[in-house]
Amino acid sequence: xxxxxxxxxxxxxxxxxxxxDNGDVxxxxxxxxxxxxxxxxxxxxxxxxxxxxxxxLTAEESREIARRVIARANVPVVVGxxxxxxxxxxxxxxxxxxxxxxxxxxxPPWTTRTDDQAYAFYAVVGEALGQTPFVLQDYPLTTNxxxxxxxxxxxxxxxPNCVMLKHEDWPGLGKISALRASSDRGETRRIxxxxxxxxxxxxxxxxxxxxxxxxxxxxxxxxxxxxxxxGGGDVERAHDLFDAYxxxxxxxxxxxxxxxxxxxxxxxxxxIASPALRKPGPSLSAADIKDVERLLSRQARRLSEIGA
Amino acid sequence: xxxxxxxxxxxxxxxxxxxxDNGDVxxxxxxxxxxxxxxxxxxxxxxxxxxxxxxxLTAEESREIARRVIARANVPVVVGxxxxxxxxxxxxxxxxxxxxxxxxxxxPPWTTRTDDQAYAFYAVVGEALGQTPFVLQDYPLTTNxxxxxxxxxxxxxxxPNCVMLKHEDWPGLGKISALRASSDRGETRRIxxxxxxxxxxxxxxxxxxxxxxxxxxxxxxxxxxxxxxxGGGDVERAHDLFDAYxxxxxxxxxxxxxxxxxxxxxxxxxxIASPALRKPGPSLSAADIKDVERLLSRQARRLSEIGA
Amino acid sequence: xxxxxxxxxxxxxxxxxxxxDNGDVxxxxxxxxxxxxxxxxxxxxxxxxxxxxxxxLTAEESREIARRVIARANVPVVVGxxxxxxxxxxxxxxxxxxxxxxxxxxxPPWTTRTDDQAYAFYAVVGEALGQTPFVLQDYPLTTNxxxxxxxxxxxxxxxPNCVMLKHEDWPGLGKISALRASSDRGETRRIxxxxxxxxxxxxxxxxxxxxxxxxxxxxxxxxxxxxxxxGGGDVERAHDLFDAYxxxxxxxxxxxxxxxxxxxxxxxxxxIASPALRKPGPSLSAADIKDVERLLSRQARRLSEIGA
Amino acid sequence: xxxxxxxxxxxxxxxxxxxxDNGDVxxxxxxxxxxxxxxxxxxxxxxxxxxxxxxxLTAEESREIARRVIARANVPVVVGxxxxxxxxxxxxxxxxxxxxxxxxxxxPPWTTRTDDQAYAFYAVVGEALGQTPFVLQDYPLTTNxxxxxxxxxxxxxxxPNCVMLKHEDWPGLGKISALRASSDRGETRRIxxxxxxxxxxxxxxxxxxxxxxxxxxxxxxxxxxxxxxxGGGDVERAHDLFDAYxxxxxxxxxxxxxxxxxxxxxxxxxxIASPALRKPGPSLSAADIKDVERLLSRQARRLSEIGA
Lengths: 308, 308, 308, 308
Description:
homotetramer, alpha/beta, TIM Barrel, 8 strands
């Protein structure tokens, strides 16, 4: 499998982790999910992310899921390897790269406070990973760490295997503009920027120079459609598609509960067998399900109105 | 002016603080803004809130704005009086109640950590305020304080002048359901619940038993329309209206920048003379303005399609 | 009264706010406290600090305390003016400078996250204060804001009225060393560095180049003695004195309860009439008082052993 | 090896992780360290703790260290098994219990905010661990989680395998008093309470009913001596010993740097071959070493004065 590079574009969907109702990993659903995402046109897959249920897996399960997804996928697979120390991070990274991963993703520890700490963290990460390309995961809402554009620029300049930014700051449109201005002026490499936050700002992010999305909204076809329409120059079409899915995407943007809603829809779509989260985790109430069902039927109607 | 009670309903819009380009309070715009909100059908006004620019005002300016708004408004005015100590809080509360405010709003200090601390804080607040009715502002994203439903229930039971919840937890639909279940079972008073978060979950919140909105989206007619449609039983109409405004409401949900976008639109609508925030504060970039303008023109088109 | 300058040295004790048992400000104790601190040899007084009970005062009480202390003191008085916005901060600063304060002290807002935000905050503070000299209060444990040495250096370079650092980072010895190295190399002005944290690292801080202490330990004679012994070159004597008081200084280092212990001792020493904190605030339990009494009697014995 | 019970008393020293200068685990020093701690009279050993360097170990190294320490030790060994999810926590716990550990220790995730979340976390932990006894690690300064006494009481009541509290709240003397009052009234089991925070409040903690210490101060003989003197009823002797070591114990209480100081002293004492922390980690500056050396020579003098 080719390695991840600065030229990566499109949608690297964040995969869920399918469990059976009893909490075991559901391997059949893992396979079906890989096929589903590829059918919908994603460019890549991202697994074992922070916000999924990766932290609930044993080390052995994590490795087994990586092996299974990488073996089945025809697209590049990025694996989250964030760990509390360099040694366990490198251990997991080496192991998944050997399996054929395209690259790894690393978020900073939540104790990072200053510009120099953030820079130093990624400098040692880059060195520890050696030849492995990695994604800088910038997600202040979860990591509690703010990394300003000039620190990211400094990392890009000094750490050659940092090839992608998973952009998830909020508000973050100005950050994309600032990073693109730096590379346009030739001050830094132009790395790939894929955006998170459930896709909630995707059309505007594309307008600022993002290369696509890296997030897990339960209709990956929205993200693929928006990115394609933008790439084809049809900005209004990108917004039409986006607006049709926005009420549901917004509903998914509820921490914890949003993942339960996402799994509910994926189960309803036949992708995964059970909507269950592994314990401890929330489940949808009857009122939540009623909300989601209304949003789904309104979404279907609106999509048909705009001919999508 | 009658006092705020548990029966309050509708939209208590969070007012912005209008400044001239040079940073002075713009009194003419203050007046025009009061008229504008009333013309759009709001039920009440909320001023000197946490997220507005109240902390940038001198004590004298705060009091003068309260005096001006209360004198001009024909609807009840709620005044934010959150302060680092009880004495200054009570001082401001007494002063605005004397001017004719309907009630005050209080957020917990960000150092509050435990259930008992949250309860104790509102118990002493309630006692310190005496006869003045107050709004419990539950806004974890800004205050960093989580108050679970059973603690709110305990406050409602023991603190008689707590008459309203400004509900701004996220996700928070389950919280509304829990609080309504308590009062339906007769375990607590049924107090007024008005919702914040820029209105981003307003139709679903109404579905859970909220009484309306208390937030500052730049099109108060959206909130008034959604609340009215819901009250009239036309849930789909409520969603149609909501969906038309959602792309802009979402854009306003960017901390800091969102307020700049809100003021930009209010200035464009002729409500306030200048979109300027008092220093220190962000301003929109050319790219931000382009985003907002596209959203405005798409919104106008969509509103006309749905006959609104 | 002369203004605060970079040459300030010695002990600027953080004064408590004396209240009667009923919660009123106890003006007689305010006067006696000023006299007591001066009798013990302090070089200056610091009032209305973050950790004292200043936030519990009304605006009028704050101003009245400042007026009273400044009028009675023969030493320079620094006044804490930290506020959520520039306008109220400047308002209080102008008012106390007119009363004869020597300077003011400003802590950053707890939402400050990045190097540039910290710098920008003090740049606008410096401009807003005009000719008034100010103390940069660097207290991460309370403000949740980390300001690295190079950012402080940048502030010192660009903001001429920043004349003192209240150093309260922990661990922070390396920070003093770094700041002194910068000024020794001629890269920045050498400003005054007075240390906080209850004096818990005072001898080592003096060894790194601090100019004294700015904290509120209930035996100001310890701080005066340590600073004098260090200044006179008798490092071992400085440590002997320090060690004798350390068990109590450590006990005072309990957030919240420490202030109650401090007031207990000051009341026992006849400085303030009542040990009461204004509500809401903790009070010592019988077990706490037993602890403090044992520490006091052991301290007296040890002081006599070392001839102090 | 017998299992940990509520009756545990004495000093369960927190062991460091010895590395060579090149960052490899130094197995010879691991053995020597176990012997050293036992020679100094500790009752138990605690390994793979949060604040040590356990997060920097690979899974394989962690297991190997546990195996080595458990095999060599004649005293009970408690193993830290805190992990981001239940499955990996249980995996490590099962593995070390099979090796002969006496019990495990679990800290709450830093996202825990409310009383109910803290309770629920330990309820599922207790269930997941089955027959394995565990230590509730209550360390707000690091975990950012506050657990009030009544929540701990609730956990003690409902979770039978919670047999020990590692008490590390600060201030926390009142917490010990409250927990002991509950069990004295027969409302809860009396579990073992061992105290952390570097031993900085050890004599007072013993006075409130603690059963000993669980922390890593580089002179374990101080903790053993204080606990023994207290147990023997000689409170003043306990304080004399404590005071002699306090200046150094306080110096060790600097986050990050304190561990470097601890390893420096352990290396100087011949326990570990190298004072090196695994990267990334701080090292002592020349000025830090000068500080530590002065404290050591003053400490030796003082110990000889008091005949210890």
